[in-house]
Design brief:
Blueprint lengths: L1 H12 L7 E5 L10 E3 L3 H4 L3 E5 L8 E6 L4 E9 L13 E5 L2 E2 L11 E10 L3 E8 L3 E11 L9 H11 L8 E4 L2 E4 L3 H12 L4 E5 L24 H4 L14 H13 L4 E5 L1 E9 L2 E9 L5 E5 L2 E4 L5 H6 L3 E2 L31 E2 L2 E5 L13 H4 L12 E2 L10 H20 L7 E6 L4 E2 L4 E2 L7 H5 L7 E5 L3 E6 L12 E6 L4 E4 L11 E3 L17 H21 L3 H7 L1 H9 L8
Parallel strand pairs: 11-17, 12-13, 12-18, 13-14, 18-30
Antiparallel strand pairs: 1-10, 2-3, 3-10, 4-9, 5-8, 5-10, 6-7, 6-9, 15-16, 16-17, 19-25, 20-22, 20-24, 21-23, 26-29, 27-28
Helix pairs in contact: 4-11, 11-13
């Protein structure tokens, strides 16, 4: 506790060698009020930030205390963004208050992440209150605040901002604290949780690192997608983690959340690191030695060392930082990987492109016993037109070949929010909708596809269609291949944030263990939608019980690796019989 407070104090009150300026990271505010911490886009914009996600109702103030070593007139800059630039008033406007002084400028005005000048303020005491006052409830956002006796703003973005930030907070990129484990799992979705449990049950000391306060990824109470697929060999493990088949977006997700979190926390040899986000994988000679992570609010950093790692991040971040090969987008109908036959897959284009399945933002409304007002939203009209709706299901999805599901993820989320708010505003205009109110909107994107890490085997649609069996089949599924595309690709008159699905029914199909470890990083497993597969091959096994099977499979493989001090590839080459016996007997075991 003392260490965490020390880190927080450094972040809030570090004074430069000239004792003239300091930075406050907004995510470290003492009381965030109704503002939420959003760490989804750290790799793109440089930091977690806080957001006023009030669904049209201004949220409670975020408040912290700042310490000043010198009295004087301080210039104040706030790093923020107008997330819907145009001829209308920005939807995410907010004010800054210093003690009793409300600064004159309205913030959230510039069209990209940058420092907005909030004015100057006379400071004549050592401690003052710093307050963020939301004006709209429509997703105003604040990254950081900079106070200086000199009238000189910080760098706006890129490497210059990152270097400046490191210098002024006196934080080096390398963590000062190191923890050692047998197995480190990064990503606490269903796949990551299953992997941690499977390894822990075999006696491994496991670290499970997850950047949200709750587990489950897309199945969590924050995103609320129900789990699909079969259990395969891992029913006992997966039933600790999955959901009922409620409608997507249902508050019933909270009950499954409680079950999931309690089950993972019950394992004494799983150290759970919630609200920790990995930011680097230290690699030498194609082997990862450690993964670095920071706390999304305090900024504390830890280095996690282990002989084996699992990338369950969905976006394949650990593999990416380690230099592993990966695929992104649609392969052409005649594309092939060296040493492989042509994929020749159904629904594939003649030329490869960057199109992938998109991201969803789910939402719900409710009927109240009294009128529920909702404002006119001109900033949604160019996205939504006259389209009206009162809830969102899986079809609420956004993807384009020229928009990247990782690099442009904040733009995707914000586009979906415009669609949701606009569709609901149009619904409110219809007769009899006076008592309709917004119940819940996720501010987290639920992704379907991005990087796919290349393993020793690339699973394809043809493997599913032909029900191809492998001697290392560790995952099985009967769910049809299900690939999404945007509705307005067929009809330009339709909105671009709804999708349609193409289905291909199959018999039982199988995924080999060789698709669950990197072919060029010696000690890296992967489980989840970033496993080794083609774009169309992902269509069936991307659902969460199936990816949970993958997670359990690699957790068991990690135990074989540990037992014999071998690589993931050597499990297949030299210990396959023992490994497969361990896999197929999982449902016959009781929880330790």
């Amino acid at each position: 506790m003392k260490f965490a407070l020390m880190i927080l104090s450094i972040m809030l009150h570090f004074v430069t060698s000239h004792a003239q300026s300091f930075l406050i990271e907004a995510e470290s505010f003492d009381d965030k009020g109704g503002w939420v911490v959003d760490p989804q886009f750290v790799e793109q914009m440089g930091s977690p930030y806080i957001m006023a996600h009030g669904m049209g109702i201004p949220v409670a103030d975020a408040v912290t205390q700042a310490s000043f070593k010198e009295k004087g007139e301080y210039h104040v800059w706030v790093r923020t963004k107008n997330w819907v630039p145009g001829k209308w008033d920005p939807p995410g406007r907010f004010k800054l208050q210093i003690d009793d002084v409300v600064m004159e400028p309205t913030l959230g005005q510039k069209p990209s992440w940058s420092w907005e000048y909030a004015g100057s303020v006379e400071i004549n005491k050592k401690k003052v209150a710093v307050v963020l006052k939301d004006l709209t409830g429509f997703n105003g956002r604040c990254d950081a605040l900079y106070f200086s006796l000199e009238n000189q703003p910080p760098p706006h973005s890129g490497e210059a901002l990152a270097e400046w930030r490191t210098e002024i907070t006196n934080q080096k990129n390398a963590p000062s604290k190191t923890k050692q484990y047998d197995y480190v799992v990064v990503g606490g979705g269903i796949a990551g949780c299953a992997s941690a449990i499977a390894a822990a049950e075999q006696g491994l000391k496991v670290a499970l690192i997850h950047d949200r306060p709750v587990l489950g990824g897309n199945a969590s109470s924050e995103i609320r997608v129900h789990t699909l697929g079969i259990y395969g060999h891992y029913e006992r493990i997966l039933k600790m983690l999955d959901t009922e088949h409620y409608p997507n977006g249902s508050p019933e997700a909270h009950e499954d959340q409680k079950k999931r979190d309690e089950n993972v926390k019950s394992y004494k040899n799983i150290d759970l690191f919630l609200n920790w986000r990995a930011y680097d994988a230290n690699t030498e000679n194609s082997t990862i030695s450690s993964v670095d992570a920071r706390h999304t609010s305090t900024g504390e950093r830890i280095r996690f060392k282990a002989p084996y790692f699992a990338d369950c991040t969905g976006d394949g971040w650990i593999a990416y930082w380690a230099g592993a090969e990966f695929m992104y987008g649609r392969e052409s109908v005649d594309e092939y990987d060296e040493g492989w036959d042509e994929f020749g897959e159904l629904w594939s284009p003649e030329e490869p492109d960057g199109a992938v399945m998109g991201s969803s933002v789910l939402w719900r409304s409710f009927e109240d016993s009294k009128p529920y007002p909702f404002p006119e939203l001109p900033w949604t009209e160019e996205v939504v037109g006259d389209f009206a709706a009162k809830k969102g299901e899986w079809q609420w999805e956004y993807s384009r070949a020229d928009i990247h599901q990782i690099h442009d993820a904040e733009e995707i989320r914000d586009h979906m929010l415009r669609g949701i708010f606009g569709a609901f505003a149009n619904q409110k205009k219809l007769p009899g909708q006076e008592n309709l109110g917004l119940e819940w909107i996720s501010y987290l994107v639920g992704k379907r596809e991005s990087r796919r890490i290349i393993g020793d085997y690339i699973f394809t649609f043809n493997d599913a269609r032909n029900s191809k069996k492998f001697k290392d089949s560790v995952v099985m599924e009967i769910r049809e291949v299900d690939v999404h595309f945007q509705q307005n690709l067929k009809d330009p008159e339709k909105v671009d944030f709804l999708s349609e699905a193409m289905f291909y029914k199959t018999k039982m199909y199988y995924i080999p263990y060789r698709s669950l470890y990197s072919r060029d990083i010696n000690n890296l497993f992967m489980a989840g939608r970033n496993f080794s597969c083609s774009h169309i091959g992902l269509g069936g096994p991307r659902v969460m019980r199936t990816t949970g099977q993958m997670g359990a499979a690699v957790g068991l493989a990690a135990s074989i690796c540990t037992k014999y001090n071998v690589s993931p590839r050597e499990v297949y080459q030299n210990h396959l019989k023992e490994y497969m016996e361990l896999v197929v007997n999982q449902n016959n075991q009781a929880k330790p």
